[in-house]
Write a structure and sequence with these properties.
single chain; about 70 residues; mainly alpha
Length: about 70
């Protein structure tokens, strides 16, 4: 189950990173374009991406622990 959560979080963070890249290069917010400006669904997507980033902070500890094995 943990692997599934890890992959889901990583996928969401990658989507967020691509969106930020599009904003930085082309001033194109893909989430805004698809779902509307700060609609409830776009807010949920932004929240899930943010929570996934916070969750992936634990990856540092897990990678460090794997190196000790």
């Amino acid at each position: 189950m943990s692997k599934g959560i890890d992959y889901t979080a990583l996928t969401l963070v990658i989507i967020g990173a691509v969106n930020w890249g599009l904003i930085g290069i082309f001033k194109l917010d893909l989430v805004n374009l698809i779902f509307g400006n700060m609609t409830w669904i776009s807010r949920i997507i932004y929240t899930l991406v943010g929570l996934s980033g916070v969750y992936l902070l634990s990856l540092y500890g897990r990678v460090t622990a794997m190196g000790r094995d």
